[in-house]
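Late entry, evening session. Most of the bench is empty. Finally got around to the prediction I had been postponing all week. Sequence below, unchanged from the version circulated by S.P.
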Amino acid sequence: MVPVRTKRAVNLAVAVAALGYFVDLYDLILFSIIRIKSLEGLGVPASELMDKGVLLLNMQMGGMFIGGIVWGILGDRRGRLSVLFGSIILYSLANIANGLVDSVESYAVVRLLAGVGLAGELGAGITLVSESMTKETRGWGTTIVASMGFLGGITAALVGDVFPWRTAYFIGGGLGLALLALRVGVLESGMFQQLRELTVRRGDFFSLFRSRARAWRYLSVILMGVPIWYVVGILITFSLEIGTALGMNPAPHAGRAVLACYVGLFFGDLGSGLSSQVFRTRKKVVGAFVLITAAFVVVYFVTAPSSLTAFYAICGALGFGTGYWAVFVTIASEQFGTNIRATVTTTSPNFVRGSVVLLTSAFQAGKDLFGVSGSAVVVGIVTFALALVALAGLEETFGKDLDYIES
């Protein structure tokens, strides 16, 4: 029998996971906002801004790739709470350290550490919330968590545009450390506590690949989410370079593009989460939002360059289309048993984020052959095709009982 959680305990778990993800996305998106400003502050010449920016982004995403595996395994072996608060401590301290760097090299190291810290919060939070709520209502909880995160992205866009870049990092670090005060009163997942009493192996990452069917299920979950970070990691983060390549004059401001995107993401996430609960389906909702995003990507390249107003409006529309993050992470949590659930729920979104390394590498490799905008188009076509194929092979998980073990 899974221990029953009081309404207060469930609400507190949702609140801590949501606020943790707020600070998580604040830091993650802040770099996109102050990338150019911070590099210029470190004396990087204009001709090297894009290459150094890609280096730092890849270091951050590489850290998330590593951290996703480490935190995921710890989440199934040590508990959801230990990972939730351990990751908050690490990325908060890394945020403060970001404001103290004095070279690109030290900046890269700290972005790597920040990436490791950022990798743990969402998966642990979503797993804790999913296992603490009923199967009929957990979608509401995960939607609240993700929506608060996107508010963190919006806050980062505003803070990064107004404050000096070092101050913006200090603010993020302070917010994260303040959040630790809420640790008292948050209870561990009842399903995990029950699992600890069994002899089953927990957090076995490699068990995901011992079965061909399980490995494809895991890969499909990851591919389903990659279009989100194609949009954020390429079309939005490098909106200045792509807009310039499309002949825009004046060129778009990256901070405003990110702000518009994250306003759209907030409403898209609410819309997808609400739709999945009302229509009682995760899979169809994600499919619809992937297709909506693909349509707006076409508009981004064809119509958006006509004016800055149109460009920012399309960035907002792209944000709305990619606002299926909460449903995506919920699906990941619902696809696997309790003994590897935290591993999957933590690694899959971080592998999606980490896919930015592959996406930006492919984007850079294709610039000489297709040009800046052409390379972005080619990478997008492959990304969306793989996502739709992967989604087609996954089972519907709305209302699925999560109290089971993977053999």
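Two things to note before I forget:
Residues 341-392 form the longest helix (52 residues).
The mean pLDDT is 89.
Will write this up properly tomorrow.
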